[in-house]
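Subject: Sanity check before I submit

Could someone independently write out the structure tokens for this chain? I want to compare against mine line by line before I put it in a report. The sequence has 332 residues.
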Amino acid sequence: MAFARLVGCALALAPAHAPEGSIRWDAPAQCPTAETVAARARALGARDRPVEVRITAVPGGFAAEVALDAGRRTLRSASCDELATAVALLVAAGLDGPDAPEPDAPEPDASPGAPEDSGAAVVPPPLEGAPIAATPEPSRDRPTPAPARSPRRPSPERPAILGPTLGVFGTAGIGLLPRVDAGGGLALGWTWRRVGVEVGGWALAPNARALGNGVRGSILLGAAAVAVCGRIRRAWFELRPCGSFEAGATRVRTTGAEVEPGARNTWLGLRGAVRALAWVHPRVAPVLSVGAVVPMFRTDYRVGDDVLISTAPVAFSATLGIELALGRQPSE
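---
Independent answer below. Compare away.
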């Protein structure tokens, strides 16, 4: 369809005839040669006429300036080969009629309502679906309008704030203490674009346990932690897979009997967790985390032959908190 439109425009804009001569051809190397264009014109029934053609590469394809007789025409196409065929058709159409003087221009229609002649070249209506158009030489009386600029793209998302962070959280889980445990913690960290590190601590509220002989006991667990997290951020949402090493102690208080192996003992553990952050503000993000803890060093507390408190080999926890970004706001 594009080529059909180009041919139709070339035939519509062609002058009636041209004097004897030859084709003067100036075109890029990827275009057909002057001999090829002349052969195509002769195959269409044309005789030699003085024609000057200059083809240049333009955005979107090629443009041909054709000087035939006393007129000049400009043709455009995405393909230089199609453009050369259109030039051959233009030459052939100009040589179809007998060598006769050009007819006088008709008188303008003086009937009421008839449009006045503006002096502009008439461009035939485009064929449906054809993107290629032949345009007349622009008037020298008017400046050529500047090409329309594409709309400006919206500015990219403001980058995340890097540097120091402060986190506060509450936690609940099962397995570290005899029943469901609950507590809280605090963490200070530093973030880069793809990774972050944290140093903090947490503590669980005392958990009570009673034996049938009137012996009661409660256990308190707390630890310091060093964590390393990856950062996967998309717009306001961030996902952090984290691993941490935790070291702390358990403390047991009893009434009615003494426990073994003592009231205080070391606790060590490895934790793996996945955190989800929603940056509702460049500096504020709620945090939800789920994870599992494997105690490396755990203690079972006994009163005689009865087990008062026992730590599970694997514990699970969930935390909910908030993180504050304390670094400087980067420039866009």
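---
OP: Matches mine. For the report I'm noting this point. The chain has two domains: 2-94, 163-325.
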